[in-house]
Amino acid sequence: MLVYYFLAALATWFGIQSLLGGFRYAAYVRRETRRPLPDFQPFASVIVPGRGLEPGLADNLESLLSQDYPRYEVIFVFDRAEDPAIKVVEELISRGSSRIARTIIAGPATDSGQKVHNLRVAVTEIDPESEVIVFVDTDARPETQWLKQLVAPLADETLGASTGYRWFVPVNGGLASRLRGVWNASVASALGSDTAKNFCWGGSTAIRRSTFERLSIADRWRGTVSDDFLITRVLKEAKLPIHFTPHCLVPSVSDCDFRELLEFTTRQIKITRVYSSHLWLPLLLGSALFTIAFFGGLILIGVYPRSSAAYVFVSIIFTLGAAKSFIRFRAVSTVLRTSNRDLLAHIFLWPFASLLYFYNTVAAGLSRRIEWRGITYELKSPNEAVIISREPQ
User: Fold this and answer.
1) SS3 sequence, 289-306?
2) What is the pTM of this model?
3) Which residues share a beta bridge with 100?
């Protein structure tokens, strides 16, 4: 019992620190969204790597062709000409968009992840006038001001990059879909005012072309699977700050089942372990601590119903996590359209998200094999990824 009380007290302390972090995050979002945008809108190249069909693809891609931005091009890049998503792209382009949009075929990857290979090919095809390179994923559905708001911070030439992050929005709901959103939200709120601790998200990142080329990022990508972890590492090595742009929290509108939930979350942590290994052990220990303190407390209450201390600790730990989730959700609601059903999920499902993180970190400690868009990789090291198998999309 004494061991449990010690761990529960420690979890409570960390919970208080996390709640304070939630207040800081909300304050940062409020401050940044009220700040006027710099008048910086150079020609931009938006690169969209894709592979296969996915729910809502047409709506996602159409949003990229409808940005309120004066001059930009959109480059869709696939590994093969037979990809069924290309027909979706061609239909959207044929509707008469005034934007410059085209599709290129990168071919199959051999020494890198397929997405990274696609990006390495695409950056060689951008318009000579382009001053900013923007990377976005096909599961993102940005608002019309997204590109303007993502590029604007780069008016400060001392910045390395400007980034947003995903926010899962369920379509039909369901426990797995909502739990995925809660799990992902804790990562979203890790971004904030500390530019030295921020990271780039490959689904919504802008970088000056001069910075990208000066740091030889395309060459540094060789052998990697994670485009965004590599960009983050290179910028940190160069001591260039990464700006988080709250307006560029991008909705990812989709549902998932429990198999897809486990596959997605475990893949993210496996990638984290390989490309940012210093984060894996604290995540393992932190998720284990909260799992033991909360779910262990519930077990103690079941075994020893008169254990008032366990009641107190479980109640405090839950309240702290629920308060952090509420504050974070309300902050995001100033940027994105959200629903009260999602709010309830964030308040009540956060302990299960912590449990899921514990599972993910254990799984990441046992294997480095991942499946991503029909391709299975073995992540040998940050600079070596071996393709095990490839399925057509």
Assistant:
1) HHHHHHHHHHHHHHHCCC
2) 0.94
3) 73
